[in-house]
Design a protein that fits this description.
single chain, 4 domains, alpha+beta, four-stranded antiparallel sheet
């Protein structure tokens, strides 16, 4: 049956053959070296009474926490019931102070401070240990034999407490007979990972342990991870694609920009006017609206857009002066087209320059035709077919957040 182990770095779940228990291995996801743990002896369970070591230690811990105001009595009773239940179910490594930290009653620093006070020398415990020849388990505080190598209640391997050597790579402490570090997986005495060799930094000459990606002394890259190699390959491919197709990419971008400008020409023109004239950019749309009203002879709309203090009094007055507003020579001429050519804004006043095309409606003088004959008639008809052009200027004024037509009238 395969054994499941979680990687301490990426938390990826790994499955190993039981034959590899106690030997080093590699995480298949992040390539971190890990030590496959050996199966611990199954913990023995028993009924917990007031004479058990775990009860005495939990009672002492709870009493100190209550004295300091960090724990309430009713909370302590409820948490201890939870602690007893988890011990009866055979859960290893569970302690009363750990449950308080898990439930958020205490912080890790508060738990360590209270435990240091609880662990002070107790003369009664020393006398009892000397008389019975046993000791307390440092994890569950049950009484076990002094020469026991593992706790029969929580399964703790007690030889781990006899620290005699530190890992040359990460500094973690281990028993003298240990070979591989349980924290980093390196050889405890050499600090080198199995199957790896020490590497010299090409920049500063510092000897690395063979598993670092960067030099600890100067930061030079020594080894690239699989993710970094993949990222570098993608960057190289992107650069190569750009070098081979940058002309076509630039052309496609230009075509796209032209198409966008054509489809959004109205909004682009509106935005340009807004940037050019600031908050008074509405003069453009205001003047265009005035031109449309003039072409359709909308006298009421024209009257509403004129400055009341200087313009015609009403729509009837506007109709009488329509030919002059449109820049026609007289009231008989017919407006054919009027087009805005330029707008000049100066503060709260603006000048709108326009081109007007109109039919002059030249009248033929009967007396002249009678005197000069068909030649005069032909010349008069040709003049009547012509379209005259004129350049006119409108004056506008900005008042109360709106542009008003000011003249000429």
């Amino acid at each position: 049956m395969a054994m499941s182990v979680d990687c301490p770095v990426c938390r990826h779940s790994l499955a190993f053959n039981p034959a590899h228990n106690g030997r080093p291995g590699l995480c298949t996801k992040c390539r971190t070296a890990i030590l496959i743990p050996a199966p611990a002896k199954k913990a023995e369970t028993r009924a917990l009474g007031r004479d058990s070591g775990s009860f005495r230690r939990a009672q002492s811990f709870a009493r100190v926490a209550i004295d300091r105001g960090l724990l309430k009595k009713n909370e302590a009773e409820q948490l201890y019931k939870n602690y007893q239940r988890r011990l009866r179910e055979g859960e290893r490594g569970v302690t009363f102070e750990a449950i308080l930290v898990e439930e958020g009653v205490l912080t890790p620093s508060q738990s360590r401070e209270l435990m240091s006070e609880v662990n002070q020398d107790d003369p009664e415990e020393k006398k009892k240990a000397a008389a019975t020849g046993d000791r307390e388990c440092p994890n569950c505080y049950e009484r076990i034999q002094t020469e026991a190598r593992s706790c029969r209640f929580c399964g703790l391997y007690l030889a781990q407490a006899e620290v005699q050597i530190g890992c040359a790579n990460c500094g973690a402490e281990h028993p003298k007979e240990a070979v591989y570090c349980t924290s980093c997986g390196a050889d405890i005495r050499t600090g080198v990972m199995p199957g790896m060799t020490r590497v010299r930094c090409p920049k500063c000459g510092n000897m690395a342990q063979g598993m670092e990606e960067v030099c600890a002394a100067c930061g030079t890259v020594l080894k690239k991870s699989a993710e970094r190699v993949k990222a570098d390959d993608l960057v190289k491919q992107a650069r190569q694609f750009w070098r081979n197709h940058k002309g076509w990419i630039a052309l496609a971008a230009l075509v796209f920009a032209l198409l966008w400008l054509w489809t959004a020409r109205d909004s682009v023109a509106y935005k340009w006017n807004e940037l050019r004239y600031g908050e008074k950019h509405l003069i453009q749309s205001r003047a265009e609206d005035f031109v449309k009203s003039l072409e359709h002879k909308d006298h009421e709309r024209l009257s509403a857009m004129m400055r009341p203090e200087s313009g015609p009094a009403d729509a009837d007055d506007v109709e009488k002066r329509l030919w002059k507003i449109a820049g026609l020579p007289n009231d008989k001429a017919i407006l054919d087209e009027i087009k805005i050519e330029e707008i000049d804004v100066d503060g709260d006043r603006a000048s709108v320059y326009l081109k007007v095309v109109y039919d002059p409606r030249i009248e033929v003088d009967p007396d002249k035709i009678a005197e000069e004959g068909s030649g005069a008639l032909h010349e008069a008809l040709r003049g009547a077919q012509q379209r005259n052009e004129a350049k006119i200027t409108w004056r506008w004024v900005y008042e109360d957040g709106t542009w008003y037509y000011e003249g000429p009238f």
